[in-house]
Amino acid sequence: MAIGKLFIGRKVREMRLEHAATQSQFAERLGISLSYLNQIENNQRPVSAAVLLALADKYGLDISELSTGETDRLMSALTEALGDPLFESYSPTLQELKLIAQNAPGFARALVSCHQAYRRNSEHIASLDDRLGRAAVLETTPYDEVRDFFHYVDNYLHDLDTTAEKLALELGLQGGDGQPILVDYLERQFGVRVVQDASLMNAVRRFDPSGRVLALNPYVPAETRCFQTAVQTAQLYAGDVIDAIIRDAGFRTEEAEQVCRIGLHNYFAGAFLMPYQGFLKAARDVRHDIELLAARFGASLEQVCHRLSTLQRPGMKGIPIFFARIDRAGNITKRHSATKLQFARFGAACPLWNAHQAFEAQGRFIRQLAETPDGARYLCLATHVSKGVGGFRTQRSSHALALGCEISYAGAFVYADDLNLTDRAAFEPIGISCRTCERTNCASRAVPPLRRHISVDHNIREATPYRLT
Questions:
Q1: What Cα–Cα distance (Å) separates residue 461 from each residue in 106, 439, 450, 465, 466?
Q2: How far apart are CA 168 and CA 414, in angstroms?
Q3: CA angle, 307 then 313 then 319, to 5°
C-alpha cells in the first residue's frame, strides 16, 4: 500500500499515552530520537516508513487504516466556514488548516457548528417579516445535525453494522428476495404478522404495536416492501444498540434524536439485506456494477449506492467513494464522501457536475471524468431514480444519484473500461460550489467566490460580467 507523507501526531500521542509511556521511553522503543518523536507528535514532521513499521510491530498499528479522509472532511468544512466575509480579516494558510484539523478535530467541528448556527440565524433574520416575528429565529435544524453526525462517523457504525450482519447470517440472508425469510422471522420471533393493505394510499408501511400487525402497501416495488420489513426488524431487534448510539451522539434536540433514529433504522435495514462481507465481495466480483448488485441483493439502485458508501469497516474497507442524492432544485438531500471531494454545506452543487444531467437521461448511467480546482481527478457516475407508491394520482419524488471515486480507483469500476483515464484533456473542470470555487473564467458561475473581490470593465463582456481580483 503506497502511503504519502503522513502527519499522524495525534494518533501517535494517543498510542503513547494509552501505553503509559513517556516521550523518552516511547522514542527509545521505536528506535528514534526524542526530538524526532516530539516533532512527529506536533505534526512538524511526517512519520517515516521505518517508524510506521515499528508502530505496527510493537504497538499493533493497522497501517491500512491510516487515512486522511477525516482531515479532508474537516479541512473542507473549515475552508468553507472561514470563507465567509465574517472572517475577511483572517486568511489561514493550508498548513494552519491541516494543523487544526489534525491536532484539534473537536475544536474544528465546534467552529464549523458555530458557523452553521450563525448562517442559519442570519438567513432566518433576513427572511423575517412582521407576521413571522421571532419564531423563525428559534427554528431548529435537526436534519443538518443528523447529516453531520453520519458525515463525521464516516457513514459507518460498527456495532450496528455487525449486529445486522450477524442476524443476516443466522437467518441465511444471502441476497435475492429475502422477504419470505423476514416475514417468517418477525412472526416467529416477535409475533408480528405481515400483511399487504391497499388502503394505505400514500403510506408505504404502517405498524400496529397493539395488534402486532405490519401492513405494507402492495403498490410499491418489491424491494421497497422488503426494505421496510427490514426497518421494522431494526426497531424490534436492534433497539438497544440504536439507543446507545443516539445516547453517545449527544444531540442538542429531541427532534434530532428522532430524525437520527430513522437514519439508524434505515442503516440497519441496508446492512441487514446487504451483509457487509458478502456485499463487499459481490461488489468486487461484479466490479461495482450497480445494476447487477441491485439484482443480486433484491435492492433498489439507491439502496445499493448508499450501501457502497458505508463500506468503511476497519481492516476491511471498500473503495473510498463519494455518494450524493440531489433533487431537481439542486438540493443535496443525502451526502457522504470518503474522498477528497467534499460537498458544500450551503448553496447548490457545481452546475458542471454530471449529476444535473441525469434528469434528462432517465434510465441510463452518465459517466464523467472530472477535475476539481485542487487538481484531484475523479470518475463520476450519475443516474435518475423516481420513487412513489404507484397510481395516477399519487405523488412521486425524482432524484439524481451521484457516485464516484478518485481516478486511481477507477479500474475497480466497470464503468471506466472504455474511458481514457490518462488523457488530461478528457477531464472536465468542476468545482464544489460557486461560493468556494476559485476558477476565474467559468461561464456557469452563479456568484463570485466569497473571499475574492470583483472588478467590472464596461468595455468588455467575457464569460462573466466581472473579473475576479
A1: 46, 17, 22, 6, 8
A2: 28
A3: 60
Whether the Cβ atoms of residue 282 and residue 175 lie closer than 8 Å to each other: yes
CB-count exposure of residue 30 (10 Å: 0-12, 13-18, 19+): buried
- Where do the domains of the chain lie, and which CATH numbers do they carry? 9-65 (1.10.260.40), 69-139 (no CATH), 154-298 (1.10.10.2910)
The string of pLDDT tens digits covering residues 302-333 is: 999 999 999 999 889 999 999 999 998 888 88
Q: Report whether 202 contacts 221 (CB < 8 A).
A: no
pTM of the model: 0.72
User: 457487509: which residue's cell?
Assistant: 276
Residue pLDDT, tens place only, 181-202: 999 999 999 999 999 999 887 8
* Integer Cα distance of 232 and 191 in angstroms: 12
The separation between CA 338 and the C-alpha centre of its own chain, rounded to angstroms, equals: 7
Radius of gyration of the chain (CA): 24
DSSP-derived 3-state class of residue 400: strand
Interval 22-26 mean pLDDT: 88
Length of the chain: 469
